[in-house]
Batch of 3 targets.
Target 1
Amino acid sequence: MKQELQLLIVAGDPLVRAALASLFDNYPDCQVVGQTSPVTLLSDPAILEESEINLVIWDFGWESADMATVDFQELDKPVLVLITDPLQAQDAWSAGASAIISRDVSAGSLAASALAAAQGLLVVDPDLAAFFLPSPPNQAEKLTEMPTTREIEVLHLMAEGLTNKSIAQQLEISPHTVKYHVNAILGKMNAQSRTEAVVRATRLGLIAL
C-alpha cells in the first residue's frame, strides 16, 4: 500500500539525518524516501523530482547563518523546518517554511505536524510564534493600498499552501504573473514572507482560513 506522506530529510549532519529518519519508523502514514544535505539539495533541486516527495523535513542545525538567503518556494514543495534556537524562527519564517517546529519536539508531534504541513496547513510551535509573528495591533492602518480582486484570489491559494506553480495552474496564468502578484501582495500587506501576508490578510478579514 502506498504511503500517504513521502519525506525527504535535509540536514547538514548525517547522524541527525539518520536520527530523524528513524523517528518516522513507527508511523505507517509517513515514509522517508531520501536523505541529503542542504548544500546538495540547493545545488541540485532536481533531487525532489526523483520520487513522489510531498514534504521536506529540514533541520537548521546550530549554524544557520547561510539559511537567511534560502527561498523554500524555489523548491516547489512544502518545508517543515526544525530549529535548535528560537532566534532561528525568523530565518525559517522569512524563507517561507510551511511549518516551524523545535527540534526537541516528540516523535508523535513531529509526525502530526508533518501530515498537517503536507496538507497545506501552517504549523507553528506556539512557543516560537512570538519570535516572528506580527503583533495584533490594527494592521489596516498600515495598508497603503487594498489588494486587487486577483490578488485576493492569489492570497486565498497562498493560504492553502499552494506554490507559485500550482497557483498558476489553478488560475490559468503564468508562474511569472503569479510571482508578480505575490510581490505586490507582500508590498501592500507590509509583509516579509508569504506566511506573514496570509496571517495579516486573515486578521484584516480579507480572507478566511
Note: The mean pLDDT is 82.
Target 2
Amino acid sequence: MERCTYFEGGKWRIRLGDTEYSGSWVDRLAAYEDAIPFDKLPRAAELVKADDKGLCMVLPCEPSAVTVYQLRSKKHALGVGISQRIVSCATVWGDGNYALHHQGADDCLKKDFGKTWFLTRAEAEAALGGGKDG
C-alpha cells in the first residue's frame, strides 16, 4: 500500500483523479500517514476481518517473554509460596479459553488468572497474604 499524499513545493498535496489538492485536511492526512506505517495497514485490515469472524483473541502476556507467578499450595513439595514461571507457548480453544504452558506441571488456565496465577509478583504476594517466598 502506498501513500496518498506527497510533499512538493513546500506543502503536502494529494491527487484525486485529475485534480490536485492541498490544505489543512491534506496536512492532517499526511500526518496520519506518517504516524501509521502503511505496510502494517494490510495486516491490520486482515486482523479486523478475522476479529469480526471471532478468530482473534488477546492473551494476557506474550509467550517466551513473560514470567507469570503461581501460588503454591501446602501440597506442593516446596510448600506454600510463589513459583515464578516462564511462559513458553499457548494453546487457544475455540470457546475463547486458553492455557499458557511453562516448565512446571500445571498449565496456567484463563479461569485461574487472578486466583492462583498472576502477571506480577506483587499481585501474587497480595493474594498469598503479603507473605514473600520464592
Note: Helices lie at 24-35, 41-52, 121-128.
Target 3
Amino acid sequence: MSSVESMESQFVRAGRVEWVGVATEPKGPLEVVQECRIEADSGIVGDHHAGSGDPQRQVTLIQHEHLATVAGLSGHESVDPGKLRRNVVVSGINLLSLQDRTFRLGEALLEGTGPCEPCDRMEQNLGPGGYNAMNGHGGICARVLEAGTVRVGDAVNAASRSPDPSQS
C-alpha cells in the first residue's frame, strides 16, 4: 500500500448522521424523519428516487459543515437541509473522501459514486446565485450495496477502497 493509499484510509473519527429527509414525490417537500430503511440496489424506502433505475444516485448525502458555507454564499443566516434536496446530512467526516469507497451509514453499506452536483432547483430554493452557492458543496451520491436501517445519531464509517475496475 502506498503512503497516499495509507493516508486515504485513515480518519480521525467516525462521522454522525445529523438529519434524514425523504421526498415521496418529485419536487415534493422532504419529510424529516428520525430513521429510514435503505434497500440494496434501490434507495430509501418511500423516497421517489428509490428503484428509479439510477444506481449512481440511490442516496444523496451532504456534509453538515457545508451548510453554513452554502448559507453564507447564498446570502442567508442559515439554510434548511430540506431545501438542498439531499437525503442525509452527516457531520464529522469528509464526504468527498468517501467517493469511490464503501462506507457504513448506520446499518447500511453504501458506495460513494461521485459528487452530487446542484440543479436548477437551488435557484428556486435559495434564490439567485443558489446554484453557485451549492457548487462544490453539494455532497455526494451513493448506491446501496447492503440494506439496513439508518437513524439520526448513527455512525458513518469508511469501509474499504472500492476496487478499480480498470485494474481487473
Note: The longest strand covers residues 15-22.
